[in-house]
Amino acid sequence: MKRVRRSSAGGAGDRLSTWSTNRPAESSYSIQVRAPYRLDLTVNALRRLSSNRVDVLSPSGEYIRVLGDAAESVVVRARQPNPGTISILLEGDRREHPRLLALVQRMLGVEVDLTRFYHAASGIQWLHPLVHRMRGVRPPRYPTLWEACVNAIVFQHVSLVAASTIMGRLTIGLGELVERDGIRLYRFPGVDQIQRAPDRLLRAAGLSAAKLATLRRVADALERGALDEVRLDGLSSPEAAALLREIKGIGPWTATLILLRGLGRLDVFPANDTSVARNLALVAGSAPLDVMAVLEALGPERGMLYYHLLLARLEAGAGLGRSVASAHQSTQRSGA
Q1: 175-196 pLDDT, tens per residue?
Q2: Contact call for residues 107 and 142 (beta carbons, < 8 A)
Q3: 3-state secondary structure of 91
Q4: What is the rounded distance in angstroms from the CA atom of residue 336 to the CA atom of residue 329?
Q5: Inter-CA distances, 163 with 135, 154, 159, 292, Å
Q6: Could you say which residues of the chain have pLDDT below 70?
Q7: Is 53 helix (H, G, I), strand (E, B) or coil?
Q8: CATH of region 1-111
Q9: Helix, strand or coil for residue 31?
Q10: What is Dmax (Cα atoms) for the chain?
């Protein structure tokens, strides 16, 4: 883990004096990161669209998220005061903070070294300008295998906007609402909440009968222990994908997204995807494009191409937000 420094009690107390009395106490931690690192870009890659009700990026560039289960939800805040530091605020029992800090750092890709990816991308003429603009993004990860599975299943065969709308309905309908400083946050619905929810409610959110059945099967596999993150971690990516595909409704594309977004496997890439193909065309333009050759050149970090293509699409639709644009302008002015 990177070097972590917790703020003094006096500093925390000064901040607490401005909060409502029913707000849990928070502790502040300073995480050292190796540049280049961009929290805003990483969070954009995690949440996809600004309509995401779970992963929130405030106008000031602060990442806010509810972690934990219904019995003990914790609000996490992360901001980047300078290129080499992330400041993280955690609520509640400090004895739980080491585990939560490790989880947040994993979610935000803090310890991922992309040196080889940058070197490989520099040799791909059409990709290099995009990588330069998005320099500092790290591969984000969902906090749980369950959340990765739900997102991958909901996003099957529908547009980014449509899938995000469905996720929003599920989150509002089933997730716990927490409010901080006027910002409405939702805890991601757990396995038990999906299992207890009537089919009519889930179908009303926009889930097809097939996707609903797949979610039920995944929830059952997790509850029985037939599907387990520790077990998947011990397998190679092809072996882990094969295990995921044993669940009816999870095909090659879905398994790849679960491995990439849920387990941080950068050696996979969702090549057979119409959205990815459109994003490739958007970035490459008229340049000759041999996708397999590009993936071969990127090697074990080929999954980073997925995140860069996603950011390119958001950038083209002005979906990256003010904080990203201003940060990029600052980078350009500094000549970095």
Answers
A1: 889 988 888 999 999 999 999 9
A2: yes
A3: strand
A4: 11
A5: 27, 6, 6, 28
A6: 1-23, 70, 321-336
A7: coil
A8: 3.30.310.20
A9: strand
A10: 61
